[in-house]
Write a structure and sequence with these properties.
- This protein is α/β, with parallel strands linked by helices and 274 residues long.
- It has nine helices and ten strands.
- The chain has a six-stranded mixed beta sheet with strand order 6-7-8-3-9-10, sandwiched between helices.
- Helix 8 packs across helix 9.
- The radius of gyration is 19 Å and the shape is globular.
- Bound molecules: adenosine-5'-diphosphate (ADP) and magnesium ion (MG).
- The site of magnesium ion has 3 residues, from helix 2.
Length: 274
């Protein structure tokens, strides 16, 4: 049995680590297409994420995972419900919330260091003031010595680590990550999972992580939120009670595998879009 039979969905929506930092309450989103049709992307999503918690979102494609992250980032307006960060309404981007996309979106004409420092310029935080922090972050993600290189001279995994340093530059409390390792090969993904676990443990950030990989979600998370097909609703929130720090050998653990299997079965019932 992978979950406590006494935990209700209501309880499972509460953090297992830290005080509530980010919270949605009956959040719904309907897009209007150009043809004038309504697309119900999210419905009644209520979830609280704790300070320092690592939460993953998994679900069929088109179930609103990216939409949810964009609303949490203040980049897309919600249709109804509440979104709160430290009890303040989220309706525009703020420096406390950093975002990492599936593609690293680095500027090809800027060096690694200058890509890390981009937010300093965009947000007017002072390039010289943040330079030492940028160098520290590059060291933390293993890119020391590559400060003067250009994105085209880096591997996919290194580019994504560069993008992570950029998201961390402004020292956000929350890191939202939308399938950040989706474009990487399997072995690089494994290494990036280990790396992200280490970064998370060192930086004590709150992470909301979207992934297609059930294994990746179980490996990294305190809780895994399993969503239904569109309109995306929370099907179940699974608490992952595996000791940390986790190593890749965990793939041989029966408990780990029972979590993976449980989530796979939940998702099998959902229809994939496209
Ligand atoms: N700007 C938009 N206008 C209309 N429909 C959209 C828009 N963005 C996303 N959608 C639709 O909303 C649904 C959820 O999309 P998305 O959040 O990208 O899902 P996921 O990230 O889980 O694959 C999909 O059906 C998608 O086509
Ligand atoms: Mg998406």
């Amino acid at each position: 049995m992978v979950r406590s039979t006494t935990a209700t969905l209501g309880e499972a929506r509460q953090p297992v680590r830290g005080e509530v930092l980010l919270r949605t309450e009956r959040l719904s989103k309907t897009y209007a297409t150009r043809a004038g049709e309504a697309v119900h992307a999210l419905q009644d999503v209520s979830l609280a994420v704790g300070d320092g918690e690592f939460v993953s979102l998994v679900g069929p494609s088109g179930c609103g995972k990216t939409t949810l992250l964009m609303i949490l980032a203040g980049l897309v307006p919600r249709s109804s419900g509440e979104v709160r960060f430290k009890d303040a309404d989220v309706h525009e981007p703020c420096t406390e919330i950093g975002l990492v996309f599936q593609r690293p979106v680095l500027l090809p004409w800027r060096t690694v260091l200058d890509n890390t420092l981009l937010p300093a310029e965009v947000l007017g935080l002072g390039r010289e003031r943040l330079r030492p922090r940028a160098l520290d972050l590059l060291k933390m993600v293993g890119l020391s010595g590559f400060e003067g290189k250009y994105p085209s001279e880096l591997s996919g995994g290194m580019q994504q680590r560069n993008a992570i340093t950029r998201a961390l530059l402004q020292d956000p409390a929350v890191l939202l990550m939308d399938e950040p390792f989706g474009a990487l090969d399997a072995m690089t993904r494994d290494r990036m999972s280990l790396e992200l676990q280490r970064i998370w443990e060192m930086s004590r950030k709150t992470v909301v992580f979207v992934t297609h990989s059930i294994q990746e979600a179980v490996f990294l998370s305190d809780r895994v939120v399993v969503m239904t097909a569109r309109p995306g609703q929370i099907a179940e929130v699974l608490r992952v009670e595996l000791p940390r720090p986790r190593t890749l050998e965990i793939a041989a653990s029966p408990k780990y595998n029972s979590y993976v299997l449980h989530i796979r079965k939940l998702l099998e019932g959902e229809v994939h879009e496209g």
